[in-house]
TrEMBL record:
Signal peptide boundaries: 1-21
Record keyword Signal present: yes
Sorted UniProt keywords: Signal
Originating species: Seriola lalandi dorsalis
Source organism phylogeny: Eukaryota, Metazoa, Chordata, Craniata, Vertebrata
Protein name: Family with sequence similarity 78 member B
C-alpha cells in the first residue's frame, strides 16, 4: 500500500537534499580509490638467456644473470588540489641463499640475518635512496594536483645480479684459487603501487613474484678462463603475475635495504663462523 506525501513535504525534502549535496560537494574532495584506477598491459619477464660467467680477473670470478623486467600502464583519475600521488614499483627480497664453497675448507655466504632467522618476512630492495620505491627514474611517476583529467602513464623497472666472488678463501692471505662451487637462490615480491605522498595511503595495483637461481661449478686447478661452468637449467623460471594482491610487509618499505642489511660470513668446515663484512 502506497501513501502519497503532501507536496509541501516533498518540496522540503528536495530542498534539504539539494542543500546537503551542495555542502558535501564543497567540503568533500573526490578521493582516489582502487576502482577508479585502470591498470593495463602489465608485463613481467626474465630474459631468455643464460647467466654469463666472466673469468677476466686473477682475483675474482664475476657472473651476470639475465634481467628481470616489469612494466605497466596506469590511468590515474584526476588528482585533487593539495594532493600528490606517486605510482611506481616497490620490491622486497623474501628469501636468499648465496653460498660460495671452497672445497673441504668451508664456505662464504651472503646472509640477511633477520630474514634467515624469520624475524621479518621481507627486506626492502630499494636503491637505498628512493624509499620505499625501487628507484626514481623509469620506476616511478609523480602526479601533483589539481589535475583536471585522467593521467595516462607507464612505469618500468629491471633487476639482475652482477657480483664478484674471490677465487681464494676470503679470510686467507693466500691468492691460491680454492673456489669450487657457487650456489645462489633468491626470491622477490614486486608490487605496483599508487601512494599518496602526504598521507602515505597506499593502493596495491599489482603483485609479481619472481626468483633467480645460479649454480656454477668451478675447477680451481684449471687455468684462468676455463675454470667455471654453468650447471643446471640454463634459463630462469618466468615470473608470476598474481591474480590477487599481497600486502606489503613493513620492512619492505624502509631502511635498511637488502644491500645494507646483508652480512658476509665465513663458515669453516671446522671451527666457529666469522663475520667477514658486517652490515652497513
Amino acid at each position: 500500500m502506497y501513501h502519497l506525501l503532501p507536496s509541501s513535504l516533498v518540496l522540503l525534502i528536495l530542498l534539504v537534499a539539494c542543500t546537503m549535496g551542495c555542502i558535501q560537494s564543497i567540503a568533500c574532495k573526490p578521493r582516489i580509490r582502487r576502482e577508479n584506477i585502470v591498470v593495463y598491459e602489465v608485463s613481467a619477464s626474465i630474459d631468455q638467456c643464460p647467466t654469463i660467467i666472466e673469468e677476466n680477473s686473477p682475483i675474482v670470478l664475476r657472473y651476470k644473470t639475465p634481467y628481470f623486467r616489469a612494466s605497466a600502464g596506469v590511468v590515474m583519475p584526476p588528482v585533487p588540489r593539495n594532493e600528490t600521488w606517486v605510482v611506481g614499483w616497490i620490491q622486497a627480497c623474501t628469501q636468499m641463499e648465496f653460498y660460495n664453497t671452497y672445497g673441504d675448507i668451508g664456505m662464504s655466504s651472503w646472509e640477511l640475518p633477520e630474514l634467515r632467522e624469520g624475524r621479518v618476512k621481507a627486506i626492502s630492495d630499494s636503491d637505498g635512496v628512493s624509499y620505499p620505491w625501487y628507484g626514481n627514474t623509469t620506476e616511478t611517476v609523480t602526479l601533483t594536483g589539481p589535475t583536471s583529467k585522467p593521467s595516462r602513464l607507464t612505469v618500468s623497472m629491471n633487476d639482475n645480479f652482477y657480483p664478484s666472488v674471490t677465487w681464494a678463501v676470503p679470510i686467507s692471505n693466500s691468492n691460491t684459487p680454492m673456489l669450487t662451487h657457487i650456489t645462489r637462490d633468491q626470491s622477490f615480491i614486486t608490487w605496483l603501487v599508487a601512494m599518496n605522498s602526504v598521507t602515505k595511503e597506499r593502493i596495491v595495483l599489482q603483485t609479481v613474484r619472481w626468483r633467480m637461481r645460479v649454480d656454477i661449478a668451478v675447477d680451481p686447478d684449471m687455468p684462468l678462463g676455463s675454470r667455471a661452468s654453468l650447471m643446471g637449467r640454463p634459463y630462469q623460471e618466468q615470473p608470476h603475475i598474481l591474480n590477487y594482491q599481497e600486502p606489503i610487509p613493513p620492512n619492505a618499505l624502509g631502511r635498511p635495504n637488502a644491500n645494507d642489511a646483508q652480512v658476509l660470513m665465513w663458515r669453516p668446515r671446522r671451527g666457529a663462523p666469522l663475520v667477514v663484512i658486517p652490515p652497513k
